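Re: weekly structure request thread

Next one in the queue (329 aa):
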Amino acid sequence: MLPEHEALLFFTHEQFPELKDAACEVEVILKGASDRHFYRLNWQDGRPPMVLMVYTLARRDNPKFVPATRRLAKIGAHVPQVFAFDEQRLCVWLEDLGRIDLHSFNDQPWSRRFPLYEATLREAAKFHGVGEKSLTQADLDELEPAFDEALYEWEQNYFLDHFVRGYLGRDFPDSEYAAAHETLKQLRRRLAKLPRCLVHRDFQSQNVLIRGEDAWLVDYQGLRLGRAEYDLASLLYDPYVNLTRTERFELLSYYATHRGLGLNDVREVFYLCAAQRLMQALGAYANLSRNLGKPHYLQHIPAAVANLNEVCQEGQGLHELRAFFEGGF
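Done, posted below.
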């Protein structure tokens, strides 16, 4: 056994003395772009496995995972049980939700995928139903900073710096891109004026695990106030999966009906949030692949660009954003 794994088992035995004599296989779980490390502890005596998450303080949202778990559990959302938490060693022992995520159904027929997406949207509706006015200052202190005009602008600049300038090699002076810059400004201002609720922040197919026909949430440490449609855009314009325009419309209609909202109102804000989210994603893919040694994220850029192009055509007042990437990809 690797020395690192032996140390993890030593920490585990401190938390669970009854497991000290149980043989265990430590399995590394590879997980996306995260700076956290995940291990599945497979007990050889027939006990259910558990997952050990080891995090760092390099990202400010990492320590928010346990408070976010407890908050979501209180409202009945499907999240893993926290068995133990060692704040000094930055370790969390969690219920193992299994290996099957929503993304793994990508090649299945829509008749199979649709119920799973419905279950996923029902989970989202649970925390989207928690509005800003229902939260105390103590509640807000446990969350990540809310989406406001400054955060929307940060995401837009992330897109411009890493994707437009870094990946496309294109400068964007105000004189030539005045209309596009004005569209960015109006987009962030429009979104910042809207009421906010709890949002996942990274609500995509690989962050939804499937158990039977139920959806379970992971990677929600970025929980904060924002627009529900931002999460919807993360899921329905997920560059990791293939959804048709018709399938997106079906899911958006289901969500609106489930929450008792007007479909037209949801759609209008949905496209605004989709433009914002896809720009953030393109900035992330470019940064991860060019600067952080993860070139496999390049493969997701074409789908994200195609999605952003569609959104700019469908959404109200978004057409000028195409100037930043049109003809350069």
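The chain has a mean pLDDT of 95. Strands lie at 24-29, 37-43, 50-54, 82-86, 91-95, 197-199, 208-211, 214-217, 224-226.
Next request, please.
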